[in-house]
Amino acid sequence: MFVAAFVFALLTVYVTAEIPSYIHVCGRRDPNINQCILDNVNNMKDKLCMGIPELSVPAFEPVIIDKLVVADTPNTKFYLKNVVINGLCDFDVKSLQSDLKKNHFKVDLILNHIIINATYDIDARIVIPINQKGDAFVKTDDVRAIANMDLTITSKNGKRYVYMSQMKINLDLKTYDIQLNVDERERSELSRIVGIFIGSNQKDIIAVVKPLLEEVISKRILLIANEIVKHFTYEELFPDRT
C-alpha cells in the first residue's frame, strides 16, 4: 500500500551524499523503470514498514483510527473504537504502471492479510436488547487493491517542486472473520445473536467500512510521501537519466 511512498524515498536518496546499499536508484529515462521500482519495493518492504529514520520516513503501520461506525440505526448501534490496523505491509504487487510525463502511478496489488484489533460497542435490539462492550478481532485475507496516484508540480523562487496531490485506493473486500470478547454470563446467547447479525449483514457492513478504510489508508500514504519530498526540487527527485 505504500508503493507511492517508496517511489519518493527511492528518488530522494539520489541527492544524498551516500546512497544506502539497500537501494538501487531508478532513473526516469530507464526503459525498465516499472520493473526497477518493483524490484526495489520487494527489497525495501520491511524497512518501509518499520520506518527509515535516515530518510525521515515514519513507520507505515500500525494505522490507527479513533472510531469506525459499523452501524448506526434506531435499533442497532455498532461501533469499533481505538482501531489498530496491521498487515498492510504484507502485500504482493501484481503490476505497476508509471507515467512520469503525466505524473501518474497505478499499482495493482494483493494484501495478504488485514488484521484489526479494536474495542467494540454494541447497543442493539435485534432479538433481545443487547448492550455490550469488549475487545474485537477482525481479519480478512487476499484483498485486492488498486491504487491511483497523481503528482503535482509547483514553482517557488524559480525552482520546481513536486507533491502527491491525489491518492485513491479501491479495496476489494469480499468477506471477513470477526471475534468478539463477551461477558461470560452472556456468552452463549450474545454470541449467537451477534453472530447471526454479523453473518447476515456482511455485505452491508463492508459497504460502510470499506470507504472509511480507503480514506484513512490514502491519507497515511499522502502524509508519508509528502513528508519525504517537501525539501527537494523536482529535478533532484526525478533525475533525468537512464
TrEMBL record:
Superkingdom classification of source: Eukaryota
Keyword Signal: yes
Pfam family, one: JHBP
Cellular-component GO terms for this entry: extracellular space
Signal peptide range in chain numbering: 1-17
Record keywords, A-Z: Signal
Entries under SMART domains matching the protein: JHBP
Protein name: Circadian clock-controlled protein
Organism: Ooceraea biroi (Clonal raider ant)
